[in-house]
Amino acid sequence: MSLFRKQLSEAVSLVSNLEQDIRIVSLTSSQKKILYSVLLKKNDSKDCNISNVIEYSNLSRSTVFKSLKFLEAMKLIALQQSDNDRREFNIEVIL
């Protein structure tokens, strides 16, 4: 097995174990992509809103909004209405 293939296999195994540990193994691929987009945006800056997630994930606004509501119900994230723009929601990770 090539070194790259071995490293890739180890990385996939690590991600799989992490997904089990943080209770996201049962999420759909879109839900995982959205959660990962939130985490990446939060890593870049402290603020993350629905528009940021749409940009990072390249998914439709309706898919992002439905998935965020689902993730909120699972208590993986919290949505809070923005103080600056009442039409926007800020996203906090609460894993």
Could you walk me through the main structural features you see in this protein, from its secondary elements to its overall organization?
The protein is mainly alpha-helical and 95 residues long. The protein has a single domain, classed as Arc Repressor Mutant, subunit A (Orthogonal Bundle). 59% of the residues lie in helices and 11% in strands. The chain contains 4 helices and 2 strands. Strands 1-2 form a two-stranded antiparallel ribbon. Helix 2 packs across helix 3 and helix 2 crosses helix 4. The longest helix is centred in the N-terminal third of the chain and has 19 residues.
Could you give the topology of this structure?
Elements: H1 3-21, H2 29-44, H3 50-57, H4 61-73, E1 77-81, E2 89-93
CATH-level-4 superfamily name: Winged helix-like DNA-binding domain superfamily/Winged helix DNA-binding domain
Helical element count? 4
Instruction: Report the top-level CATH class.
Output: Mainly Alpha
Could you tell me how far the N terminus lies from the C terminus, measured between alpha carbons in angstroms? 36 Å
Instruction: Describe the global form.
Output: elongated
Q: Strand order of the main beta sheet, please?
A: 1-2
What does the oligomeric state look like here? single chain
CATH architecture grouping? Orthogonal Bundle
Mean pLDDT: 93
Unreliable parts: none
Strand fraction band?
Answer: 5-15%
Q: Roughly what percent helix? A: 55-70%
State Rg: 15 Å
Biggest sheet layout: 2 strands, antiparallel
Domain count: the total is: 1
User: In CATH terms, what is the fold-level topology?
Assistant: Arc Repressor Mutant, subunit A
Helix vs. strand class: mainly alpha
**What letter string, H or E per element, gives the SSE order?**
HHHHEE
Count the E strands.
2
